Structures are given as C-alpha cells and as structure tokens.
User: Fold this.
Amino acid sequence: MSLLETLKKSEKAGVVYEADVVHGLLPQKAPFAFVDEVLSLELGDGKDVLPSLVGLYHVTGEEKFFQGHFPGNPVMPGVLQVESMAQAATLLTMIAREADVVGKRPAFMGIENCRFRNPVLPGMDLRLEVKLLSVRHGIFKYSGKAFSGEKLMCEADFVAAMV
Assistant:
C-alpha cells in the first residue's frame, strides 16, 4: 500500500491534508515546520503534466524568529520563505516520488533565480506553489512561488537531493 493510500484526507473544504497529516509527514518539526496544510496535489502524468503541490503556512506572528527580525516591525526572513517552499516540495516528493525517496530526508543543494517581491508579515497566510521540474541521478529540481492572497511574495528555483 502506497503512502498516498494511507494518508487521511481532510473533510475541510478546499483542503486535501490538514496539519496533523502534514506535520506527521514533514521531516522538519516545530518550531521549524513551515507548511500547515496541503490545498492541492497533482501527481503528474510523466509527460505533459508536472507533479505539483499547493500548501499553506499560517504566519501567526507567534513564531520565535519575529522576536528578532525585526522588533517593532516583524518580517518573515526571506530564507524561511524559501524554506517553506522547500518543505512543500519535500511533501510533494514524498508523495509523488515515494519509491525514490522512502526512508530518506531532503538536503538542499542550491537556490537560483530567487526574488523577494513583498514582505511577509504576521497574520498572513502564505500559499506555497511548487512544481517538480525534473529528476536526474537522485537530484530533484523545483520551481516555487509564495503568495499572500494574489500577491506574489517570493519565488525561486531550487535543487535538493534525498539522502
């Protein structure tokens, strides 16, 4: 039985997997887990449709990093925005490429074309859209975007290996 078959689907409208499932899957744990829900999942068809996932991170403002970044004017650090997209990509890979990655964890290898478009502030929901672009010799290449509402906050291409 595949991982996909065992995951508890959400009964909440517009949500595929809720926080308990997501946090159970992610190798990163609190306080370093930056995906709370999966809103959509596309496994891809191996030809024209790329595997993709849309996740959601609720930026509560209670996160410890806001205490120092920046006091009185809190902003989510850009590296953590990229990390949240990478964690969404990890979920995608664990589900869509399970046979390739079972028993492994992600290792970041590189980030390209990264742009921070708008500040991420406490109280925002960060919608994380990631696509698996290619896999070669155990190296996974992704494209990711983070939105608050319809506003693009951050985008990047990144590469990881599952080790």
About this structure: The chain has one domain: 15-162.
